[in-house]
Amino acid sequence: AQSVAQPEDQVNVAEGNPLTVKCTYSVSGNPYLFWYVQYPNRGLQFLLKYITGDNLVKGSYGFEAEFNKSQTSFHLKKPSALVSDSALYFCAVRDLRDNNDMRFGAGTRLTVKP
Amino acid sequence: GAVVSQHPSRVICKSGTSVKIECRSLDFQATTMFWYRQFPKQSLMLMATSNEGSKATYEQGVEKDKFLINHASLTLSTLTVTSAHPEDSSFYICSAFSTPEAFFGQGTRLTVV
Lengths: 114, 113
Prior knowledge:
The complex is a heterodimer.
Chain A: E1 3-5, E2 10-14, E3 19-21, E4 24-26, E5 32-38, E6 44-50, E7 56-58, E8 64-68, E9 73-78, E10 87-94, E11 102-104, E12 108-113
Chain B: E1 4-7, E2 10-13, E3 19-25, E4 32-38, E5 44-51, E6 57-58, E7 67-73, E8 76-81, E9 90-98, E10 101-104, E11 108-112
Parallel strand pairs in B: 2-11
Antiparallel strand pairs in B: 1-3, 3-8, 4-5, 4-9, 5-6, 7-8, 9-10, 9-11
């Protein structure tokens, strides 16, 4: 079965600095990888996905992620953080060869300080 | 993009009563929907997979008699929390796939008093 690990519970960065939120995955087949953001008492908002093609994926709000097959990673990045980026971020993986459902990481709380 | 609508967004109920949460795919058909539960400051935990026209598949440890799932049409799945207790208070989120991407409802904050 597929699984996702987000090794950091919390990431703190200063506004204007680059940010990275880490994610590693495990699947038996080819992964479909996703990043979602969640604001308090809200559902998940889609940021970006990797299905196939270029390893560097660009998504919403200036976020990007790089698929690294050898390291089984899919870290989320942004060159210059905004205070409004402060939220809970989830990495997710889907393996269509398996259960067809989506598995989530534990989540990483990003705090961007002015 | 595809839209999944979840209703209600908040509900407060008395202990022992039942609560129904609806999840609709507004502009696409979803033969499969998923129900998640999220505890404060934790990730989403898959509760069950809802299959149109057949019984739901529950994850280990989830009481199927307590969390009744009905997926009667290609655009609607419902989760009914029966005989709710305070420990059922949580944030419930549904999702549906418009392959290969998943779309999520807004979530339902259930508080049992």
